[in-house]
Amino acid sequence: MRPCARILVVDDELSMREFFKLMLDSEGYQAECVPNGREAVSLIQKSFYDLVITDIRMPGMDGIEVLKKVKEISPETIVIMISAYATTETAVTAMKQGAYDYIPKPFNVEEIKLIIQKALEKRQLRQENDRLKEELRKHHRYEKLVGSSPAMLKVYELIRKVAQTRSNVLIYGESGTGKELVARAIHVESPRSKENFVAINCGGIPETLIESELFGHKKGAFTGAVTDQKGLFASADGGTIFLDEIAELSPALQVKLLRVLQERVFRPVGGTEDIAVDIRIISATNKDLEQEVAAGNFREDLFYRLNVIQIRVPPLRERKEDIPLLARHFFKKYADETQKQVDKISPVALKILMQYSFPGNVRELENIIERSVALASSSAIQAEDLSFININNGKGAKIDTPAVTIPSDGFDLEEYIARTEKDILLKALEISRGAKQKAAGLLGISFRSFRHRLSKYGL
Q1: Does 69 have pLDDT greater than 90?
Q2: φ, ψ for residue 31, nearest 5 deg
Q3: In the chain, what are the domains?
Q4: What mean pLDDT comes out for the span 360-373?
Q5: How far apart are CA 359 and CA 437, in angstroms?
């Protein structure tokens, strides 16, 4: 029962109004009674009532009309219909119009008390669900972005404002902070949401291929170009293109991108005609582009074109209050994937996570939780499931160096280092299930560096 709920009774019989007033007051409700529908509608227009109890047969405006007006003025108000002339037809009509229940007279007092109680409990539950949904909408509305810290709420607010504009956006953030998720959220919230969102890692494609990837190529443009190929800019026409690691673009590609930004046209490799394109460009970097401009590594005019609106995604160490929320999000994800009954995290294990600095940010936390779920032997992640984390005074994870015995006649150090490096690369790929970008993040190196190291061993 919801205490102090406001209830309005509409009945042309004085005895019924007196009965309800006495009964409802004794139950702790705030009850008002009126003799006709016109007065009831006038009161509902002025103030809110949790519940309306109305007779059906009344002179002037009948109960069905009162029900319609209530649902029109205050859709959240619950309406219970009562009548001494109950028929199946009127009951069906009332229920179709949104009545909670239809009670024939005479009725049992205890029965109607219970019906009122259940109706108000249902409304309270619905309000609580709406409140929780609103909180989730505020805190987690943007696809897979998770967090309710002040730092993330600022990001959500920027996403909301930026999404409705046509301006280019530059997203700053360390590796693993979720820059692509922010870009996707902007696209989803924008008028372009029904069109394509195309993402490309500018540091993950060899320089000899990236121009063709971006702008496409014509048949015969280079060896292996056996057909015309549409590029990512063409695929994103009408939608959004996300250029991650924008600082890795070569000077030549920077010039071509600048032309797209200025003129909204591009030319495929080997092509002779320009192609017009309507796209929004969102770019991201983990570098300080102003320093890159000062060092001569990045064009100043391109920087200003890209940096119309700037969003900084905070590292996890700056929003540690989000760690419990993120941890629950990830262990539910991986528990579902592995079909393990892991649904909570122990206080000691959570304390370990809260003390850790997460140099790899959210991506590292996700990897830790994935591994912990795999190791968990109970329904809760325990401290021992996190034994591979070494807090190291908050400076990040530390891997113990294996003891090495040097033979008396010596050994080949370069061979040993190469073999060890190869083993580590393969182990990272194993943990990341073959995802090279994720494996690079585990080792704290760039994707380009990871790919180069793999190529040394023919991997």
Answers
A1: yes
A2: -110, 140
A3: 6-135 (3.40.50.2300), 150-314 (3.40.50.300), 318-394 (1.10.8.60), 413-456 (1.10.10)
A4: 90
A5: 16
